[in-house]
Specification:
3-stranded antiparallel β-sheet, 417 residues, 49% helix, 6-stranded mixed β-sheet, 18% strand, 4 domains, alpha+beta
Length: 417
């Protein structure tokens, strides 16, 4: 009985869709150069079943392109309805593999789509998702006293063709990974009872890119503008001590008076680099190594970074290891102003970049850094774009924009203007 009801409902949906297609085709005005070539039948698959749809086909000889107006008007992706295509993208981006996505769809919804077809849809939509991430921003509004901008990079295992000519950290100087950047924007309205900053609930948005830090910076800036950077109380750039990320902050984020935004080097990176200094100074196996690293952490929290530099130089003066210690101290020398952690804490700022580092693990690592995975740039970039948009709570907004753009492709008015 239930099977018969589903079949009847599926036939009704197919009939309604065919009537809609006929109305779309009847209203369509061919663009200059397009020639009507008849009707072609497509097996359309939706969440509740499949049905054949006959729609008009036009061909533009000059461009060598064919066009089905109904496909754009309905927002079909390959042969899938927008609702199913959206679900395929979610499953393909969220599950650890496309094969798991195939099985999950079959087990939970009785939807049969092969792993290869899910991958095709993800890559088709993902390229548009990456472009959507990088679109020029319409300035938004933000009432938060503090807006944070954070960025980090992580290496993804790539196929050999993507690594040709690239220098890396392997013994022979070659690379096994390509760096992908992840940026995030989030806000803060308050601190807790102990004066620790509290991130606003679900305020974090993400963007990703394989571009260089110099190219990625403007993309992250656009997201901050979209989030209302101009109306936020102040903007704080929270990153590690890498020179490229420092320049990203200086070049793309300024206060309302034109001065550079407050930059904070992630405290936990600073403590790690304190370990490098002590390794050069006394060695990692020294019985006081851990205790002294802990003392460095406590003194960094009291704005003592300059004193620590001076004391360390004095301790190693004239010693054979002085050059190695000086090299390790360079990290702190370059970042003195960005390591005033006592002052930053007193102002209620976050001093750790845990938000973006967690994003690197959840948004990037949990999908793209599994055992045995090797990616092409396009394959990883497209799937990460969908994951960033979904993690930012913008998937519905992206999909609506995509459907609007597809439908607008049938409009002849822009050509006549």
């Amino acid at each position: 009985m239930r099977t018969a009801v589903f079949k009847s409902a599926n036939r009704l949906v197919g009939w309604l869709l065919q009537r809609a297609v006929e109305r779309i085709d009847a209203a369509y005005q061919p663009k200059p150069g397009e020639v009507y070539k008849g009707r072609e039948t497509l097996g359309v698959q939706g969440i509740f079943g499949s049905f054949p749809v006959a729609r008009a086909y036009y061909y533009h000889a000059g461009k060598g392109q064919g066009h089905h107006p109904a496909d754009d008007a309905l927002g079909l992706e390959v042969s899938y309805t927008p609702a199913l295509a959206k679900l395929l993208c979610l499953e393909g981006a969220d599950e650890q593999t496309y094969l798991k996505a195939e099985r999950h769809l079959a087990q939970t919804g009785g939807i049969t789509v092969s792993a290869r077809q899910i991958q095709r849809v993800v890559q088709r939509v993902g390229s548009a998702a990456q472009a959507w991430q990088e679109r020029p921003a319409q300035p938004g509004r933000c009432d938060a006293p503090i807006m944070y901008v954070s960025a980090d990079g992580t290496g993804l295992p790539m196929v050999p063709e993507e690594l040709e000519g690239r220098r890396g950290k392997q013994a022979d100087g070659t690379a096994k990974t390509r760096q992908v950047y992840l940026g995030c924007v989030f806000t803060q309205h308050r601190v807790d009872e102990e004066g620790h900053p509290v991130r606003d609930w679900e305020s974090t948005t993400y963007v990703s890119s394989f571009k260089s830090s110099a190219e990625f910076g403007p993309c992250l800036r656009q997201d901050a503008i979209r989030r209302g950077m101009a109306s936020a109380g102040e903007v704080v750039v929270l990153i590690d001590g890498a020179e490229g990320l420092e320049n990203l902050g200086k070049q793309n984020f300024k206060q309302k008076n034109g001065e550079a935004c407050v930059q904070i080097v992630d405290f936990y990176h600073a403590v790690e680099h304190a370990g490098d200094v002590l390794a050069a100074l006394i060695g990692k196996n020294h019985p006081d190594y851990k205790a002294r690293q802990h003392r460095w952490a406590k003194r960094l929290l009291k704005d003592k970074v300059e004193i620590l530099i001076q004391e360390t130089r004095k301790e190693c003066a004239g010693q054979p290891n002085a050059p190695q210690v000086e090299d390790a101290l360079g990290y702190f020398e370059r970042n003195v102003k960005r390591m005033q952690y006592g002052t930053f804490r007193a102002r209620g700022y976050f001093i750790g970049s845990g938000v973006v580092e967690a994003g690197c693990k959840t948004v990037i690592g949990s999908r793209c850094k599994q055992s045995g995975m090797f990616w092409s740039e396009a394959g990883a970039e497209n799937i990460l774009a969908i994951r960033c948009i979904n993690s930012s709570g913008r998937l519905d907004q992206f999909w609506k924009d995509r459907l609007d753009r597809r439908a607008a492709g049938n409009d002849v008015l822009p050509l006549a203007a």
